[in-house]
Specification:
The protein is of the alpha/beta class. It is 39% helix and 25% strand. The chain is built from 9 helices and 10 strands. The strands form 2 sheets. A 6-stranded mixed sheet has the order 6-7-8-3-9-10, with helices on both faces. Strands 2-1-4-5 form a 4-stranded antiparallel sheet, with helices on one face. A hairpin with a 2-residue loop joins strand 4 and strand 5. The chain starts with 8 loop residues before the first strand and ends with a helix. Bound molecules: adenosine-5'-diphosphate and magnesium ion (MG).
C-alpha cells in the first residue's frame, strides 16, 4: 500500500452515464482516482466494470457526464487520444499479445512506433522490464511458448514500457490456471508498492487486502459502495455487497 501524501486526482469520473441500446450500463457514476492510489473494483458480472474501465481510456464513449485525466477532459481523437492511450495502460483478461512477435518485440513495439524511441534503447528498457516481471529469459520466445502467467506478465511489461501514469487491469487473473494467479498478483503488488496508480477489476480478495487503498463495489451500473478493503470485507455497508461477498468468499 502506498501512502499518498498530496492526494491529487489523476482521474475524475463525474455523473457518467452510458447505455448500449436500451441497456443502461453506467448509471450516474462518480469516481475519483488519486495519484498513487490503487482502487479495486469488484461486483457481479454484467455490472458495468469493464465498460467503466474502457471509458477511462476512451475505448468506449460515454453518453453524458465528464471524465477528466490529469486535469483535462478525455480527448476524442488524434494525437491527444494516442497520448492518452499510452498514458493509461490496459491489461486485459485475455493478454492480447501479438502472436507472431517475440516477447521482447511485444514490449518494444509501442515505444518504437508510438513514442518514437530508438530500437536499441527500447530493447534495453524492454529487457529491464522483462527482468522486473521475472521473464527476461523468455525474451526471444513467442507468446504461445509461454504459460498464461508468463504471458500476462508480458502484457504488464508491455504496458509499463509506455511509462504510463496509470494502469487499468480488467480481471487480469481470471483466465489463468490457479497456480499462475499469484505470480501475476505479485507483480501487481510490486507495482502498487512502487506507487503506480492502478484501477483493478478483480475478485482476488488477497490482492485487495494487501494492495488496495479503496474498494469500489459496482452492481447493475451503479457504484453501490466505496470503502476501505478492511471495512468492505469484514463489515460491508450494503445488503447488495454482503450478498455478493457471501457468494464468492
Ligand atoms: P462487467 O465487466 O461488470 O461484467 P460489462 O461492463 O462488461 O460488465 O457489461 C455491462 C453490460 O453491458 C452487460 O450486460 C454487457 O452485456 C453489456 N455490454 C457490454 N459491452 C457491450 C457492447 N459493446 N454492446 C452491447 N452491450 C454491451
Ligand atoms: Mg468485465
Amino acid at each position: 500500500m502506498t501512502e499518498n501524501g498530496d492526494a491529487t486526482p489523476l482521474v475524475r469520473v463525474e455523473n457518467v452515464n452510458k447505455s448500449f441500446g436500451a441497456l443502461h450500463v453506467l448509471r450516474d457514476i462518480n469516481l475519483t482516482v488519486n495519484r498513487g492510489e490503487v482502487v479495486v473494483v469488484i461486483g457481479p458480472s454484467g455490472g458495468g466494470k469493464s465498460t467503466l474501465c474502457r471509458a477511462m481510456n476512451r475505448l468506449e464513449t460515454i453518453d453524458s457526464g465528464t471524465i477528466t485525466f490529469d486535469g483535462k477532459p478525455l480527448p476524442a481523437e488524434g494525437k491527444a487520444l494516442a497520448r492518452l492511450r499510452s498514458d493509461v495502460g490496459m491489461v486485459f483478461q485475455s493478454f492480447n499479445l501479438f502472436a507472431h512477435k517475440t516477447i521482447l518485440e511485444n514490449v518494444t513495439l509501442g515505444p518504437i512506433k508510438v513514442r518514437g524511441v530508438g530500437r536499441e534503447q527500447a530493447e534495453k528498457r524492454g529487457m529491464e522490464l522483462l527482468e522486473r516481471v521475472g521473464i527476461a529469459s523468455q525474451a526471444r520466445k513467442y507468446p504461445a511458448q509461454l504459460s498464461g502467467g508468463q504471458q500476462q506478465r508480458t502484457a504488464i511489461a508491455r504496458a509499463l514500457a509506455m511509462d504510463p501514469k496509470m494502469i487499468l487491469f480488467d480481471e487480469p487473473t481470471s483466465a489463468l490456471d490457479p497456480e499462475m494467479v499469484q505470480e501475476v498478483l505479485d507483480v501487481m503488488i510490486g507495482l502498487a508498492r512502487d506507487g503506480m496508480t492502478m484501477v483493478v477489476v478483480t475478485h482476488e480478495m488477497g490482492f485487495a487486502r494487501r494492495a488496495a487503498n479503496r474498494v469500489v463495489f459496482m452492481s447493475e451500473g451503479q457504484i453501490v459502495e466505496e470503502n476501505t478493503p478492511d471495512e468492505f470485507f469484514t463489515n460491508a455497508g450494503t445488503d447488495r455487497a454482503r450478498d455478493f461477498l457471501s457468494k464468492i468468499l
